[in-house]
Amino acid sequence: MHSEPSALTDASPAGAPATDQPGATPLAPSPLDTWPPAWTPAAVVFDCDGMLVNTEAAWVALQDEYLARHGVAFDEETRRSITGRAAEVVIAAIAELIGKDPSVVTEELLLAHRTARREIRMVPMAGAYETVRAVAAVVPVAVASNSPREELQHKIDELGLAEFVTAQVAVEDVAAPKPAPDMYVQAARLLGADPADCLAFEDSETGAEAALGAGMQLIAVPSLPGQDPRAPRRLTSLEDPVLRDWIAGWTGEDPR
Length: 256
Fold this sequence. Notes:
The protein is of the alpha/beta class. It contains nine helices and seven strands; from the N terminus they run ββαααααβαβαβαββα. It has helices at 56-69, 76-82, 87-98, 102-119, 128-136, 149-158, 182-191, 205-213, 241-248; strands spanning 16-17, 43-46, 141-144, 167-169, 198-202, 217-220, 233-234. It has a seven-stranded mixed sheet, with helices on both faces. The longest helix has 18 residues, at 102-119.
């Protein structure tokens, strides 16, 4: 549902092209195959939790604490597969593991989450504010998140990003949340752009699958251990100097 600045060390060097995972469909050629690219996106869509704000790690920790109180824990593969998924998917997995009614888990876990949200100051991911501001000076920006609308709006407001964000897509706005492509397709529509001309930023495998499924170009910036999102380009931080200089060179016109 909901990261923490890069305590994570990426296996790939900053600005590294992606390597396809075994058995996966090869990634299509991308303008991001060169770094910096000779390409300017028509619009940019950011994930929120774990991409712009340090909430994903806190949400995962809350789940793990809840499971520990019941004497169980997710195995590594389950944790990897549900990271970035909608709250309903996470809660269903927890309920099945502990043998509890999902409605009870929802009430207990989301109450704890709301309490923690009030107590923990939201901290933007390294370079997030500066990147969104720089992008929004040239092309329109959307934020697409599996969070409920109220939660998403709260995060954007707390981060001081509202003035830069043209459109928001929350879990209530689409038929299917990430990893389905619906959110990214909707974000592109709201920004008046073809998905193929848009750039997405994601931190999770779930989100990366959604962005690629929508046909967008994608930069992955993993923020949680165990996540290995497929993307044409991977960075360790939004503070990447080549990313910063590339954005600074955008003119709002596609140079192709």
